[in-house]
């Protein structure tokens, strides 16, 4: 992809955050194309979906496997793509920068960087360390002339810190630090109560991203609360797999193909055209 085209995509993606939009998360070329055909203006990737579809648990997928999926997704659509890079595929800012460089070279315009460690004894990375990573990505974008969009994910709600107050207080503290380091948007997966979302909006300047989870308020309420972006994470992938599971059980338990045939809205010819 030419540099000028990538810059324009990056700018278009950044502009989306000046209002409200829904960002679906794809795991392969077909899911990306379907979301694009639905009319979404941009899409993200789901690390969990990509990993599971290739036989890996989340956070255990090799980087090359993820990068190959990113290339196929970017090449499948004309809309901007942002990539879930988990905790960065690197032990230090230098390795993280190399990760992001390859993601951008693949044609993506943004990244999602999370701060959970998967270690129960130390569930979140130290703030100064995470700030260095964000600052390094920001510097990379300036150096290569691509306004890489940094979605800084903070996980107090996702890892279920002890009390609601602790979750909210820690989220706000992390968010301020990440914005100071150069983050463009703050992503808070797991937050879902109106009161917490309202407080978060009052305490944080700039775009906020929430995750579509059970009991999350509907899109129009979140827009009214001042949220800019709702992403879906692995939700669409898990829903697709759940349907596949139901189809399999329908075949074996009832000897029926009704569920498969009744839910197949895309014909074989349509599939080939994808």
Automatic annotation (TrEMBL):
| Coiled-coil regions listed in the entry | none
One Pfam family from the UniProt entry?
PEP_mutase
**Which terms does the record give in the GO molecular function aspect?**
catalytic activity
The name on file for this protein is Dihydrouridine synthase DuS
| Classification lineage | Bacteria, Bacillati, Bacillota, Bacilli, Bacillales
């Amino acid at each position: 992809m030419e540099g000028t085209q990538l810059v324009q995509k990056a700018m278009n993606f950044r502009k989306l955050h000046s209002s409200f939009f829904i960002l679906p998360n794809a795991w392969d070329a077909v899911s990306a194309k379907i979301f694009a055909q639905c009319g979404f203006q941009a899409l993200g990737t789901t690390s969990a979906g990509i990993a599971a579809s290739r036989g890996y648990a989340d956070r255990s997928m090799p980087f090359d496997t993820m990068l190959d999926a990113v290339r196929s997704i970017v090449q499948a659509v004309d809309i901007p793509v942002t990539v879930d890079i988990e905790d960065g595929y690197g032990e230090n800012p230098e390795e993280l920068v190399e990760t992001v460089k390859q993601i951008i070279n693949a044609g993506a315009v943004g990244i999602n960087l999370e701060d959970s460690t998967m270690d129960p004894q130390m569930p979140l990375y130290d703030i100064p360390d995470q700030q260095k990573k964000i600052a390094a990505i920001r510097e990379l974008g300036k150096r290569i002339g691509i306004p890489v969009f940094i979605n800084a994910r903070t996980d107090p709600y996702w890892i279920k810190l002890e009390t609601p107050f602790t979750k909210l207080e820690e989220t706000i503290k992390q968010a301020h630090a990440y914005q100071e380091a150069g983050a463009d948007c703050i992503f808070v997966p797991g937050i879902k109560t109106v009161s917490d979302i309202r407080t978060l909006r009052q305490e944080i300047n700039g775009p906020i991203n929430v995750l579509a989870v059970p009991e999350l308020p509907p899109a129009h309420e979140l827009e009214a609360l001042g949220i800019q972006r709702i992403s879906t994470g692995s939700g669409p992938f898990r829903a697709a797999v759940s349907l596949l599971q139901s189809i399999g059980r329908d075949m074996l338990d009832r000897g029926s193909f009704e569920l498969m045939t009744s839910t197949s809205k895309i014909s074989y010819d349509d599939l080939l055209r994808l």
